[in-house]
Amino acid sequence: MKAALIGAVLAGGAAYGGWMLSGGSGGPQADPTDAALVAEGRQVYAEHCAACHGLALEGEPDWRSRNPDGTLPAPPHDETGHTWHHPDQQLFDITKYGVEPFAPEGYVSNMPAYEDVLTDREIWASLAYIKSRWPEDVLQKQQARNP
Which residues does the UniProt record annotate as the domain Cytochrome c (predicted)? Predict the structure, then answer.
């Protein structure tokens, strides 16, 4: 009985360690070299993201200046924006749950949560597509932010 318990604890620890090393999500990551994931992400992005962030990832005009309601316009997801300043898991979480849970108190955003709209794979795919459009130097800087 004791040996079985120790074995179960060790197996659980190994599984948890693997999960943590994979970024903690247990699902696909935002791999910009995965052609199938990028192709899927292109479609997801066009359908769910491009209306605000631009078909060419250019964001809304004057994206650094607040709107009259206090929100910020959608930022670009290309190399001129700040998307690449964040690790993949943070980008995933913001996409899935919206900006507000991760922003300072009182921060208001027009970015909706996609938890009930997109699957986890679709979120990872959209991020893979975005990352596939970055220049190599920007991609390397962003990848250095991932655990």
Answer: 36-134
Tokens at residue 83, please?
Answer: 């998307």
Residues 57 and 130: their CA atoms lie apart, in Å, by 8
Q: Judge whether residue 37 has pLDDT over 70.
A: yes
The residue range of the domain holding 115 is 29-143
DSSP 124-144: HHHHHHHHHTS-HHHHHHHHT
Token pair 């898991």 is found at: 89
pTM, full prediction: 0.80
Query: If pLDDT is split at 50, 70 and 90, which confidence band does 2 have?
Result: very low
**Taken in order 33, 95, 102, 116, is the CA torsion positive or negative?**
negative
Instruction: Kindly indicate the confidence band of residue 45, based on its pLDDT and cuts at 50, 70 and 90.
Output: very high
Asked if the structure places residue 14 within a domain, the reply is: no
